[in-house]
Design brief:
The protein has about 120 residues and is an alpha+beta fold. It is built from 2 helices and 4 strands, in the order H-E-E-E-E-H.
Length: about 120
Protein backbone atom coordinates (compact mmCIF):
# COMPACT_ATOMS: atom_id res chain seq x y z
CA UNK A 1 0.00 0.00 0.00
CA UNK A 2 1.37 3.31 -1.06
CA UNK A 3 0.66 6.24 1.23
CA UNK A 4 0.24 9.55 -0.48
CA UNK A 5 0.83 12.74 1.38
CA UNK A 6 -1.08 15.81 0.38
CA UNK A 7 0.60 19.13 0.93
CA UNK A 8 -1.19 22.33 1.89
CA UNK A 9 -0.68 23.69 -1.62
CA UNK A 10 -2.35 20.65 -3.18
CA UNK A 11 -5.30 20.94 -0.79
CA UNK A 12 -5.65 24.64 -1.60
CA UNK A 13 -5.59 23.96 -5.36
CA UNK A 14 -8.23 21.25 -4.99
CA UNK A 15 -10.45 23.52 -2.91
CA UNK A 16 -10.15 26.39 -5.40
CA UNK A 17 -10.92 24.03 -8.30
CA UNK A 18 -14.07 22.75 -6.61
CA UNK A 19 -15.11 26.31 -5.71
CA UNK A 20 -14.63 27.55 -9.27
CA UNK A 21 -16.60 24.61 -10.67
CA UNK A 22 -19.40 25.25 -8.17
CA UNK A 23 -19.63 28.93 -9.13
CA UNK A 24 -19.56 27.97 -12.83
CA UNK A 25 -22.44 25.51 -12.40
CA UNK A 26 -24.44 28.11 -10.45
CA UNK A 27 -23.89 30.71 -13.18
CA UNK A 28 -24.92 28.31 -15.95
CA UNK A 29 -28.03 27.30 -13.97
CA UNK A 30 -28.97 30.95 -13.45
CA UNK A 31 -28.52 31.83 -17.13
CA UNK A 32 -30.49 28.82 -18.37
CA UNK A 33 -33.32 29.55 -15.92
CA UNK A 34 -33.51 33.17 -17.09
CA UNK A 35 -33.49 32.06 -20.75
CA UNK A 36 -36.28 29.52 -20.23
CA UNK A 37 -38.37 32.05 -18.28
CA UNK A 38 -38.02 34.61 -21.06
CA UNK A 39 -38.87 32.01 -23.68
CA UNK A 40 -42.02 30.89 -21.85
CA UNK A 41 -43.08 34.48 -21.15
CA UNK A 42 -42.78 35.25 -24.86
CA UNK A 43 -44.86 32.21 -25.75
CA UNK A 44 -47.62 33.08 -23.26
CA UNK A 45 -47.86 36.76 -24.18
CA UNK A 46 -48.87 36.33 -27.81
CA UNK A 47 -52.01 34.85 -29.25
CA UNK A 48 -55.70 35.16 -28.63
CA UNK A 49 -55.83 33.67 -25.13
CA UNK A 50 -54.85 35.50 -21.97
CA UNK A 51 -55.60 34.91 -18.29
CA UNK A 52 -56.71 38.26 -16.91
CA UNK A 53 -57.22 37.36 -13.26
CA UNK A 54 -57.23 34.27 -11.03
CA UNK A 55 -58.88 33.78 -7.65
CA UNK A 56 -58.20 30.68 -5.54
CA UNK A 57 -61.28 29.10 -3.96
CA UNK A 58 -59.61 26.04 -2.43
CA UNK A 59 -56.19 24.40 -2.80
CA UNK A 60 -56.99 22.99 -6.24
CA UNK A 61 -59.97 25.06 -7.43
CA UNK A 62 -59.83 28.48 -9.07
CA UNK A 63 -62.07 31.01 -10.76
CA UNK A 64 -60.41 32.74 -13.68
CA UNK A 65 -61.29 35.55 -16.05
CA UNK A 66 -59.96 34.61 -19.48
CA UNK A 67 -59.79 36.76 -22.61
CA UNK A 68 -60.49 34.63 -25.68
CA UNK A 69 -60.24 36.85 -28.73
CA UNK A 70 -62.49 39.79 -27.89
CA UNK A 71 -64.68 37.93 -25.38
CA UNK A 72 -64.12 37.72 -21.65
CA UNK A 73 -65.13 34.44 -20.01
CA UNK A 74 -65.41 33.47 -16.35
CA UNK A 75 -64.36 29.85 -15.88
CA UNK A 76 -64.11 27.53 -12.89
CA UNK A 77 -60.96 25.42 -12.98
CA UNK A 78 -60.70 22.27 -10.88
CA UNK A 79 -58.22 19.44 -10.66
CA UNK A 80 -59.69 17.50 -13.58
CA UNK A 81 -62.32 19.82 -15.07
CA UNK A 82 -63.00 23.29 -16.44
CA UNK A 83 -66.50 24.81 -16.48
CA UNK A 84 -67.60 28.06 -18.09
CA UNK A 85 -69.59 30.14 -15.62
CA UNK A 86 -70.49 33.23 -17.64
CA UNK A 87 -69.43 35.73 -20.26
CA UNK A 88 -68.53 39.31 -19.37
CA UNK A 89 -68.36 42.46 -21.42
CA UNK A 90 -65.27 44.65 -21.23
CA UNK A 91 -67.28 47.38 -19.49
CA UNK A 92 -68.06 45.00 -16.61
CA UNK A 93 -64.39 44.48 -15.81
CA UNK A 94 -62.30 46.67 -13.54
CA UNK A 95 -58.75 46.55 -14.91
CA UNK A 96 -55.88 47.35 -12.59
CA UNK A 97 -53.25 49.78 -13.74
CA UNK A 98 -50.45 48.25 -15.76
CA UNK A 99 -47.45 47.08 -13.74
CA UNK A 100 -45.28 45.84 -16.59
CA UNK A 101 -41.73 47.03 -16.31
CA UNK A 102 -42.11 47.93 -12.64
CA UNK A 103 -40.25 45.89 -10.09
CA UNK A 104 -41.24 45.49 -6.49
CA UNK A 105 -38.42 45.09 -4.05
CA UNK A 106 -38.61 43.09 -0.87
CA UNK A 107 -37.83 46.10 1.32
CA UNK A 108 -40.89 47.96 -0.02
CA UNK A 109 -43.22 45.03 0.63
CA UNK A 110 -41.72 44.46 4.07
CA UNK A 111 -42.22 48.12 4.97
CA UNK A 112 -45.91 47.97 3.95
CA UNK A 113 -46.47 44.86 6.07
CA UNK A 114 -44.67 46.43 9.03
CA UNK A 115 -46.87 49.53 8.81
CA UNK A 116 -50.01 47.39 8.65
CA UNK A 117 -48.91 45.45 11.75
CA UNK A 118 -48.24 48.68 13.63
CA UNK A 119 -51.68 49.99 12.65
CA UNK A 120 -53.31 46.79 13.91
CA UNK A 121 -51.58 47.10 17.30
CA UNK A 122 -52.92 50.62 17.85
Amino acid sequence: MLLATVSKADSYVQFMTVLILFVFVLAITYLVTRWIAGYQKGKMGCGNLEIIETCRISPNKYIQIVRAGTKYLVVAVGKDEVHMLSELSESELDFLKETKGQTTDFAGIFEKVRKLKEKDKE
